[in-house]
Amino acid sequence: MLPRYSPKLTMNWYFVFLDALLLTITINGETFGGYKVYHIVPQTNDQVSFISQLQSKPKFDFWKEGTTLGDASDVMVAPELQEKFESDLSRNGIDFEIVIEDVEGLIQQDRRDMLLSRAKRTALLGEVTFRSFMTYNEQVAYVRRVAEDYPNIATLERLGESYEGRDILILHVSSGKSATAIPKPVIFIDAGIHCREWIAPPVALYIIQQLVENPLNAYLYENVDWYIVPNLNPDGYEYTQSHNRLWRKNRRLTEGAACYGTDLNRNFGYMWMFAGATNNSCTETFAGPEEFSEPETRALRDWFLAHPEENVKLYLTFHSYGEMVLYPWGYDSILPDNFQDLHYAGQLAATAIDQSSAMNSRYRVNSSAILLSPAAGGSDDWVKAIGGVDLAYCIELPDGDAPFYFMIPARQILPVVQETFEGVKAFHGYIKDTYWDGIENESKISWRND
Predict the structure, then answer these.
(1) Percent of the chain, pLDDT > 70?
(2) Which end of the chain has a smaller Cβ tally under 10 Å, C or N?
(3) 222 pLDDT exceeds 50?
(4) What are phi and psi of 61, to 5 degrees?
């Protein structure tokens, strides 16, 4: 005789299943038992120098880099280095706070959250959800379906191929060619270059969904074209889901290197290795053996070099975390000639996000090197300097409920993508006003005078 159905019994068995699955993930993957995250704030220039030196050392993983007076850093430290690290901090007069006692416990909480959210998911393959984090195959299936269902406005292209052979896709959203001799301005977006920052690809996917599937947003692509890369580092992203939740780099093993992976956002060929990057493959900021050594960064570079006719006026690359709108330069604390325009447009987007935020987001706007710390080889620096894009930004998204940091819970995906889209719309308005409406009106006046 079959036992009577009991929701409580079923749920108990469900959590037993989850615990078993988490144990399997722990055995098959990398663990962070005993790793701690320290919150440190330098108050003197000597303290800033000491903290900066740590960024090039293995087993010091800076989750947040702050290398100016009063600017906090959050750094994860391996167990075997903690005693000396704390001693060195005390010797240098640096106050610290341990904000995460056991990183592995946080990761297991994140895994449980991921599995629970996926268990509740009703979306089929080819659909998108903002209630749980999707696998790369699910992301790809959605983008392919969008292109099939909306061929009049959405065109799917293959940007390139990752080291492990995964397609890197780019979706073009457009109402068609310009009806005048004036080329339409283009907004180019990518996400996921740092693969542990799971919240970034959903932002790109939400932009796609709102552009293509929401008729109320058709005005956004009427006179502005969009190119969107939902995930620029698919190998690393899949690795974070199966082995190491905190993996940041790609998955290629450089010949002769001791450790896997290159930090793709240190691998672009503008002021490569100038600052904030290392030649040690076992660090999180390994810049690769040479500029553009990685297939993922070459894919982005080659698109820009192969499409000089595209009138790209805005580049957005989504990262996490910190609630910041960052613009070049990243390699040094100097400002580009059009920094006032960069700051003004960035502030428009930041204000739009803050005013719509259900999470009390408060974005800061400045250059990367000034607001964070100098770091060369970033995509935004290269796109502006070599790609010729006037406005280039790195958007650092919210981290959600502390102390999740990169591991923002699935229940906060939707509020993040919704508020970020308001910022993207503000950027669109600036691009349209500056590069379409004004130029189009000038062209009409000139034509009438002729």
Answers:
(1) 90
(2) N
(3) yes
(4) -105, 105
Between 167 and 11, the higher pLDDT residue: 167
Instruction: Please give the C-alpha separations between residue 403 and each of 183, 406, 412, in angstroms, as whole numbers.
Output: 46, 9, 14
Alpha carbon distance 247, 92 (integer Å): 30
Give the pair of three-digit tokens for residue 360: 């009390």
Name the band, by pLDDT with cuts 50, 70 and 90, for residue 7. Answer: very low
What CA–CA distance (Å, rounded) separates 87 from 350? 40
| Cα–Cα distance for residue pair 229/237, rounded to 1 Å | 14
Bond into 403 cis (ω within 30): yes
Asked if residue 416 has pLDDT above 90, the reply is yes
- Residues listed for the chain: 450
Lowest mean pLDDT among 11-15, 254-258, 402-406: 11-15
**Greater pLDDT, 203 or 73:** 203
Show the tokens assigned to 55. Answer: 């960024």
Which whole number is the average pLDDT over 122-128? Answer: 87
Give the number of other CB atoms < 10 A from CB of residue 218. 12
Task: Give the pTM.
Answer: 0.90
Three-state SS string over the chain comes to CCCCCCHHHHHHHHHHHHHHHHHHHHHHCCCCCCCEEEEECCCCHHHHHHHHHHCCCCCEEEEECCCCCCCCEEEEECHHHHHHHHHHHHHCCCCEEEEECCHHHHHHHHHHHHHHHHHCCCCCECECCCCCCCCHHHHHHHHHHHHHHCCCCEEEEEEEECCCCCEEEEEEECCCCCCCCCCCCEEEEEECCCCCCCCHHHHHHHHHHHHHHCHHHHHHHCCCEEEEECCCCHHHHHHHHHCCCCCCCCCCCCCCCCCCCCCHHHCCCCCCCCCCCECCCCCCCECCCCCCCCHHHHHHHHHHHHCCCCCEEEEEEEEECCCEEEECCCCCCCCCCCHHHHHHHHHHHHHHHHHHCCCCCCCEEEEHHHHCCCCCCCHHHHHHHCCCCCEEEEEEECCCCCCCCCCCCHHHHHHHHHHHHHHHHHHHHHHHHHHHHHHHHHHHHHHHHC
Enzyme catalytic residues: 396
Q: Give CA–CA dist 366/45, Å, rounded.
A: 21
pLDDT at 9: 38
Per-residue pLDDT at 360: 94
- The stretch 94-105 carries a mean pLDDT of 93
